[in-house]
Amino acid sequence: MRLQNKVIIVTGSCTGIGKAIAERCVAEGAQVVIHGLEPEWGEQVVAKLGTQNAVLHIEDLTLPEAPQRLVEIAIQTFGRLDALVNNAALVISSNIQTTDEAFLRKVLEVNTVAPLALIKAALPQLSQNRGSVLNIGSVNAWSGEPNLLAYSISKGALMTMTRNLGDTLHRENNVRVNQINPGWVLTENEAQRKHEQGLPEDWYKAIPNVFAPAGRILWPSEIAAAAIYWLADESGPISGQVVDLEQHPFLGRNPPKDASTLST
Predict the structure, then answer these.
(1) Which residues lie in coiled coils (predicted)?
(2) Phi, psi at residue 78, to the nearest 5°?
(3) What is the pLDDT along the chain (264 residues), one digit of tens a residue?
């Protein structure tokens, strides 16, 4: 039980990676605050985990007082707060033609500003309990796909924030801040997005080798397994680190000769 007696907020945990992280946290002995925008899905997660282990809060994180309310729910329900997982994100396609200033601000508000606001709101409790923050980024933070411009910008900013606060908050507040950058993960929303883009319902069963050497893309449970290390005391004093979780070397990769003939 690597997270015994810890209380953890996991944003965006009604589905996908966040849901998998919350489930794994409870399996490791933690109590969790489930958060998202989908009441029915969130209620299903809480029912599965048990009300003694989980509480649900539905709210848009970009609202001014939302971060503080989320922290207060953790304290009122479970008496403390030990860790924060900033997983909630707006995953949306855009390129240079479709990304105007208003669109970029909207994506940044959800993917970068809200995580910072949550860290600020949680900091007193996290500092008191020598807690930790785990930001869920994306391998797109390094440059991103052509049709993920605004999303990639926001995740690049999140990565810089992780390194900055991972140093500052560790020294000044006893709070560790780290980040994992998942690659291509088969979440419910990703499966639906690709289907809406014209791919068949079972598109994930035939991924070209250039994108998935293992023959499949990642599962949310595999990201959750990695998340536990950063939330547990066993990661010790490590802070300010960003780890890419993909099945091939994302930077400096030598693409196969036939890669140009393949499409996602």
Answers:
(1) none
(2) -120, -5
(3) 999 999 999 999 999 999 999 999 999 999 999 999 999 999 999 999 999 999 999 999 999 999 999 999 999 999 999 999 999 999 999 999 999 999 999 999 999 999 999 999 999 999 999 999 999 999 999 999 889 999 999 999 999 999 999 999 999 999 999 999 999 999 988 888 787 878 888 888 888 888 899 999 999 999 999 999 999 999 999 999 999 999 988 776 666 655 543 333
Please indicate, yes or no, if residue 2 is contained in any of the structural domains: no
Rounded Cα distance, 127 and 175, in Å: 6
Number of domains in the chain: 2
Strand partners, 9: 33, 84
Domain that holds residue 213: 185-217
Tell whether 83 and 201 lie within a shared domain: no
Catalytic positions are 151
User: pTM of the full predicted structure?
Assistant: 0.93
Residue 87 and residue 71 in contact, taking contact as beta carbons nearer than 8 Å: no
Residue 256 within any structural domain of the chain: no
Q: d(Cα 37, Cα 24) in Å, to the nearest integer?
A: 21
The string of DSSP letters for 16-82 reads HHHHHHHHHHHHTT-EEEEEES-HHHHHHHHHHH-TTTEEEEE--TTSTTHHHHHHHHHHHHHS---
User: Which residue is it, tokens 């396609």?
Assistant: 93
